[in-house]
Fold:
Amino acid sequence: MRLSAEEALALATRAVGLTAADEAEAVVTSGSAALTRFAGNRIHQNVAERDTRLTLRAALGTRTGVASTNLLDEEALARCASAAVEAARHAPEDPGFPGLPAGESGVLAGRDTAGVTVFDASRRAEAAAAIIAPASAAGLVAAGTVSQSLYSLAVANSRGVARATSSGDVRATVLTMGASGGSGWASWLGASTAGFDPAAMGARAADTAARSAEPETLDPGTYTVVLAPEAVSDILEFMGWLGFGAKPLSEEGSFLAGRIGEQLVDPRITISDDALAPKTIGLGIDFEGQLRQRVPLIEAGVARGVVTDSYFAAKLGLPNTGHALPAPNPYGPLALNLKMGAGDTTEADMIASVERGVYVTRFHYVNVEEPMKLVLTGMTRDGTFMIENGQLTRPLKNLRFTQGILDAFSHLGAIGAERVLVGPGEGGATLVPALLLDRWEFTGQTG
Amino acid sequence: MRDLVALALDAAQTAGARYADARVVETRQQTISVRTGRVEGIENAESLGIGVRVIADGAWGFAATSEITPDGIRAAAHEAVALARAAASTLLAPVRLADVGAYTDTWTGPCETDPFSISLDDKLALLLAADEAMRAEEAVRISSSAMDFLHVKKLFGSTEGSMIEQSYFESQAGITAYSLGGGEMLPRSYPNSHGGQAVQGGWEAILALDLAGNAPRVGEQAAALLSAAPCPAEMTTVIIDSSQVALQVHESIGHPTELDRVLGDEAAFAGTSWVGLTDLGALRYGSEHVSVTADATIPGSLGAFGYDDEGVPAQRDYLIRDGILTGFQSSRESALEIGRTSNGCMRADGWNRQPLVRMTTVSLEPGSWTLPDLIADTERGIYFETNNSWSIDDRRLNFQFACEIGWEITNGKLGRMIKNPNYTGITPEFWGSCDAVGNRDHWQVWGIPNCGKGEPMQVAHVAHGAAPARFTNVRVGVGR
Structure:
């Protein structure tokens, strides 16, 4: 059963009362999710789940412990409360623990989820069929997903916090493949089905797959690149994980360490975390019940700051920006709703301005080579094209890059005017434009 | 619980399912983490739920709920049938399953000492001692250590007559020291990176690691890396330690031999495979030194079980024998596509996920070399230890791995330490260049509890047996 925001808050409030500690915090996440998965031009998996989880944090002085359960009977709630207190009893004192954050009570108006609820199994099947149709008609093979998620988050603590909200999202992806090595990709993410056009998505992926047939090789080297928004999203997510949170900054182990206030990248680049921007799907509160703030991270190319939670705000003497994850977590606060400022160029104009370069639809399996230098490696996927004399010409076999991102963002050509919401959904997504970068190091190719 | 499983199967059949299975999964987990002298987290978690999988109108449906009541379970069974019927609208051919027997059985993994019976004080003392010992080196500015314990109890039932109970413990621990200096952060881990070593077993497995005893060396090597030589950019011979060979097997052999990837069912997310159905029995995957098995019967490995999550008994099967592709990892549905029966590789990440083809314990079979002899036999090259970064393309051909540490090999001896060593290659060329594999004394099973696949995402706990191995003409120092 999925709880409403009000029901989740009632459960959280009751759980706080069960916890015999100096301070206590209860987080309730409750949701339902359904995903229709297709491959080989037919639906092959059609799944749904419902779950509600309670996480309790107990504090005895500066000692803290956490316990969680998805069993919600009285005995299980008491066992969970007891386990959290027992964990705190054994924990050493943590002089840095500032106490649980104070705050306000009330249910925040969540996003309207009517447009998510209607996306039931039959409509998902219709959408999948519409996505598949252009591929099937062209003798291509489509694989992907259409899904909906509905979720509530409630946080209550013994210092007056009693916040809850709810949201939902609709997501779709398609990879279309041809027999001669071509593939294309399209995706959709939004707070409802408004604007979702599965047939157009399928057609876009099929068109790219057809155009990328018989890909050719390209010698590794330094090239100008146009990165489509999905590729930019991959890069931004790694920046968020490696550097835009307070923990790596406090440990002096990130690319922002000692560089706040410094001109880091091209002055046309601005990045913020903004869960409440109209086009995003972020939640209004974090997992400590604090209101999420819009946080400037890089402004006009200058490093401005990081996102915090109550622990790292106190540790670094910064404001709490409301970016806590469920306690305990190994990452510290994270920026889950990154947004890059838009430019004034169309993707077509970017391509038209390139004499010789590479167009990248998206990346695959990106990973970190050197975290403090923000050196990443990964592969291109599903539509890599040569740009010659301002036009997409030959499709290319997938390329490997090994690239320092700060260096790449310091050689900016242009930023796209149109931004796309990309991500896994369930509260996390990036809002990103296409980028034209003058220098990008391709270090290998799949033969 | 047997009654509830029977209720789910009955409800699914009444609603129109031709086939149904149901899994009740109960887990208990404890995680303890220490970072740079601070206990970052102590968490105890429990979870219980049921997943119902059906075939109705020829298509799959799956629904899961944590509402373990007759009404909750009936609702899940009915939803699974409704999902199957919706999926049937795009059906090209009805789902068919390879035959499997009906089993009533129990299976229990090995565990000498229940890790949940050990006091938090003992666990914290061990981690804090290791944490402090790593920071004896001034250059080690961040230290990290953690333990994770899991107890899983599963009950599987199917409309074909199986009712199988399984339970096991998993225990994991590891430490990492990070040195900071000159704009670099350099990790050094023991016994492995990314959380350490994970096995099916109990507290005895943690004690055997001797984290505190190894912590000073880990700290010293992390500090020494700051002044180590950069990785040269060249083509050379490499010797890779067993933990990195394990990950190399995982990414470039384990995943591409999953039959659902080969058939295209994972294309949109994890990708497909460079291997095709017609390659079976013919493709030279690697040199004659490369033989690889998928073996769910190795006691204590994360890939071990009595039955997979669709009730197929655990098996040992060759994927590659003497360099030639001989098998795939399969499910009942995918095995039928190649005219075989399932070799038991269907596994689900908990009660709320539908089983997928997943690795069990996929291992490079041992060769005949000792590590000292392997190094002594190498005129020039680099010895790599402990993974730091991994990346591979969607067909599992083009990979790049970085390790935590390396040493030059000159005239059969280890020389200068190398920082940030990495290597890249193409799967068949790389395995084709394997000219030596370490013997059984150097062969170890490594647990990998973070293998992501599927949508919605599932994280599998798998394992790989591996010994150090040597490869020639490998490109190292990419982007260095």
